[in-house]
Amino acid sequence: MEYSINEVARMSGISTRTLRYYDEIGLLRPLKVRSNGYRIYGPNEINTLQQILFYRELELPLDDIRKVLVDDAFNREEALRSHYEKLLQKRHQIDLLLENLKQSLEEEKGRIRMKDKDKFQGFKEKKLKENEEKYGKEIREKYGDDMVEKSNAKYMGSSKEQHDRAEVLSSEILEKLKTLTGTVPADSEEGKALAELHKEWLMLYWPVYDVEAHQGLGDMYLEDERFKAFYDAAVEGAAAYLRDCIYAYTKK
Predict the structure, then answer these.
(1) Is residue 148 included in any domain, yes or no?
(2) Does residue 137 fall inside a structural domain?
(3) Residues 40 and 97 grouped into a single domain
(4) The pLDDT of residue 118
(5) What is the span of the domain harbouring residue 23?
(6) How confident is the model at residue 219 (pLDDT cuts 50, 70, 90)?
(7) Among 107-116, 163-172, 216-225, which stretch is predicted with the lowest mean pLDDT?
(8) How many whole angstroms separate alpha carbon 64 and alpha carbon 58?
């Protein structure tokens, strides 16, 4: 069956303008374009549009979607299964937030009393999920599943005060990196004090402190481009400087 651009727009819920844009950037070409300029779409294009909308729902950038779709190894069945699993995870997260909101409304009406830490469970689980997607593979390979699960459990059980302290420490570490990087030696008292702050921040998440693990995290900050980019965004060379401070501190 073939569809006009207006029919596809009505069927999919996206605008004809968006469909034209997808054509312009090579993301979704029509099956054919008639002599009058009307775009016509067939079953394959409809399937591709469905994939695009799935990926957009998962917040994947258009450039990345295009790369996936043109990959010779692309498998529609595997992609659908992956979408299904990710949407289940997303639904679980939404369910947690809805339950949190429901309980907050009940508390507002005076019907229940929530523990302060319970008010943030949905948000904390979302943060863990994001971290797992970004860094889970590398962290688990470096420290093992047991260490990661214990760390996650400690984070989920943390109080609002501990969470706030972690945010303060994170900001303070970045500010000190801006001030010290390139101007003060890593093995100075100020450099070691920075590493001490970093240790305090870590212990809000880690179940136990380990010197080698601390050093390994410093190495990862420099070796992993994502961590390096995060710290170097504060000031060029910050990731290497923080790693050096950690080594100086742990060898004292």
Answers:
(1) no
(2) no
(3) no
(4) 59
(5) 3-70
(6) very high
(7) 107-116
(8) 12
